[in-house]
From TrEMBL:
Family recorded in the similarity comment: Belongs to the universal ribosomal protein uL4 family.
Origin species: Croceibacterium atlanticum
Basic and acidic residues biased stretches: 45-58
Subunit structure, interactors included: Part of the 50S ribosomal subunit.
Protein name: Large ribosomal subunit protein uL4
Any one GO CC term of the record: ribosome
Protein keywords: Ribonucleoprotein, Ribosomal protein, RNA-binding, rRNA-binding
Length: 207
C-alpha cells in the first residue's frame, strides 16, 4: 500500500510503501473488542480488600459471663461490633490481571493500524519544529486539518519540544512506537505516524 508523506507543515514529501501484512489487514470487530477489553482491564488497579473477622488478630475466647453481666452476650472479639474487629460485608479483593494470547494482541494492533490506514492515517517525515511552541503547533494542526482527537506516534522517543507543546493541546496525545496500542489508536480521529514510527511498527511484527 502506497501513501503520501508530508512534512509537519503540510508540504508534500514523497511517498512511502506500507507493508500490507501490517497496514492491510481486514479488521474484525470481535478481535478488536477482545484486545481493547484486555487493555482496559489491565489498566485497572487491584481492588483493595477489607479485613473480615477471620482476618483480624483478636482472641476467640469468650471474654464475659453468659449471664449476669448486664450486657449482651458476646464471644469472639473479632466480631464486627467491637473496635478492632473484622468488617462486616466488606469489599472483597478483585484482581483484573486478564491474560490474552500474544498472537491475538499482535493481530489486534495490526487491525487497528489497518483501520486507520483506510481512513484517518497521516504519515509525516519527522516531527522537527522550527518553533516548538503550543500556539505555533496548534496553527500547524489547524492548517493540516488535524481536528478532533489526534494521536501522534514517533520512533524510539518523541522529540522533547514537540511533546511538551503537544501536551498543552486538548485531544492530542503523543506516544513512541513501542507504546502504540489498540485502544488509543481507535479512540482518536486521526493517527499521525512518522516514517521512523512506520519502520518501528513494521519491524515490531517482523522481528
Amino acid at each position: 500500500m502506497k501513501v503520501k508523506v508530508q512534512k509537519i507543515d503540510g508540504k508534500a514529501s514523497g511517498d512511502i510503501e506500507l507493508n500490507d501484512a501490517v497496514f492491510g489487514v481486514e479488521p474484525r470487530a470481535d478481535i478488536l473488542h477482545r484486545v481493547v477489553t484486555w487493555q482496559l482491564e489491565n489498566r485497572r488497579g487491584t481492588a483493595r480488600p477489607t479485613r473480615e473477622r477471620s482476618d483480624v488478630a483478636r482472641t476467640g475466647k469468650k471474654w464475659g459471663r453468659q449471664k449476669g453481666g448486664g450486657t449482651a452476650r458476646h464471644g469472639d472479639r473479632a466480631a464486627p461490633v467491637f473496635i478492632g474487629g473484622g468488617k462486616a460485608h466488606g469489599a472483597r479483593k478483585r484482581d483484573f490481571d486478564v491474560s490474552l494470547n500474544k498472537k491475538i494482541r499482535a493481530l489486534g494492533l495490526k487491525m487497528a493500524l489497518s483501520a486507520k490506514a483506510k481512513d484517518g492515517l497521516v504519515v509525516v517525515d519527522s516531527l522537527e519544529l522550527t518553533d516548538a511552541k503550543t500556539k505555533a503547533l496548534a496553527a500547524t494542526f489547524g492548517k493540516n486539518g488535524w481536528n478532533g482527537k489526534v494521536l501522534v506516534i514517533d520512533g524510539d522517543a518523541v522529540e522533547d519540544g514537540f511533546r511538551k507543546a503537544a501536551g498543552n493541546l486538548p485531544g492530542v496525545n503523543v506516544l513512541p512506537a513501542m507504546g502504540a496500542n489498540v485502544y488509543d489508536i481507535l479512540k482518536h480521529d486521526t493517527l499521525v505516524l512518522t516514517k521512523a514510527a512506520v519502520e518501528k511498527l513494521e519491524a515490531r511484527f517482523n522481528g
